[in-house]
Amino acid sequence: MGTWALTRRGRRTARQASDSSAMEAAARWGFVARGVLYLLIGVLALRIALGDGGQEADRGGALAEVAAQPLGQYLLWALGIALAGMALWRLSEACFGAAGADGHKPRKRLFSLARFVFYAFVSYSVLSFAAGASGSGSGSSDDQSEDVTARAMELPGGQWLVGIGGLAIAVTGLWIAGRAALRKYHKHLKAPALRGRTGKAVDITGVAGGIARGAVFAVLGGFAVKAAVDYQPDEAKGIDDTLRSFADTPAGPWLLALIAVGLAAFGLFSFAMARWRKI
Fold first, then answer.
1. Residue 268 in contact with residue 32, Cβ under 8 Å?
2. For the chain, what is the radius of gyration of the CA atoms?
3. Are 214 and 222 in contact (CB under 8 A)?
4. N or C: which end of the chain has fewer CB within 10 A?
5. Rounded to 5 degrees, what are φ and ψ at 277?
6. How far is residue 168's CA from residue 93's CA, in Å, rounded to a whole number?
7. Confidence (pTM)
8. pLDDT interval class at 32 (50, 70, 90)
9. Are 242 and 218 in contact (CB under 8 A)?
10. How far apart are CA 156 and CA 198, in angstroms?
11. Are the CB atoms for 210 and 266 separated by under 8 Å?
């Protein structure tokens, strides 16, 4: 059998796998895992707003919370594997197109590729933490951001790279918040999720959660831009410091509490996506 025939058969097999029930299950469990992480980050951020700032409100803090529970080690492995399933699903979308009439457009497939990279990294960090490499999954997001920013600034044109990267993150945050406010997620949901009390609950968690998540990304990107402009890597912040910065505004801890509730709502919205998302 020739190389062309083997390639064609391999592509056909991959496409069949992307349309399989196993891939659908992987995507849905990935949404569940994402929901768990955001729910925990929201709870940790709310604790900070209420005066208990001991645990960091980021992925590392969430993983530490999971690890402290009975059977926590097994739960960590389950989260990491589920997120790997999410990454594979996004990769299949990048290769063969997503659900929906416009799922095959190059822009959609490029977004799916970016999401694959993101979830692959998150899955790797969670699995590394589960395997005992705590520095990979549970390290402070603030320290990691400063370290990455400092290394990037050492590269030729590094200041511009950091600034452009921060601007891209900030714009992404605004895009996420805007799409949530406009309820753009409706087109990805099955009809039963949009009716009656279920629809109201989905909209409350989807809008509030998306706006809160977008706000965090927008501010996170803003700090990166400031670090680039001032040429000060330590001004770049991770999720934890970004969340704490909301408490430094005139609104004080109340704004942080509002953002925390929004992030927890996004976790609940992710559970709804696991149930009713078109895969």
1. no
2. 20
3. no
4. N
5. -70, 140
6. 22
7. 0.86
8. very high
9. no
10. 52
11. yes
Per-residue DSSP letters for the chain?
--HHHHHHHHHHHHHHHHTSHHHHHHHHHHHHHHHHHHHHHHHHHHHHHTT--SS-SSHHHHHHHHHTSTTHHHHHHHHHHHHHHHHHHHHHHHHH--SSTTTTSHHHHHHHHHHHHHHHHHHHHHHHHHTT-HHHHTS-HHHHHHHHHHHHHTSTTHHHHHHHHHHHHHHHHHHHHHHHHTTGGGGGB-GGGGSHHHHHHHHHHHHHHHHHHHHHHHHHHHHHHHHHHHT-GGG---HHHHHHHHTTSTTTHHHHHHHHHHHHHHHHHHHHHHHHB--
Report in angstroms the alpha-carbon separations of 135 from 36, 125, 146, 151: 21, 9, 15, 18
Q: Give residues with Cβ within 8 angstroms of 167, minimum separation 6.
A: 221, 225
Length of the chain in terms of residues written: 279
Q: Are 76 and 130 in contact (CB under 8 A)?
A: yes
pLDDT at 18: 57
What gap in Å lies between CA 158 and CA 194, rounded to an integer? 46
Distance (Å, whole) CA 31 – CA 226: 33
Contacts of 277 (CB under 8 A, 6+ apart): 27, 28, 31, 188, 189, 190
Residue 6 has pLDDT above 50, yes or no: no
- Can you tell me the distance from the alpha carbon of 133 to that of 111, in angstroms, rounded to the nearest whole number? 30
Q: Alpha-carbon distance 54 to 127, whole Å?
A: 24
Residue showing tokens 């009439």 = 101
Over the stretch 87-129, which tens digit does the pLDDT of each residue have?
999 999 888 877 766 767 888 899 899 999 999 999 998 998 8
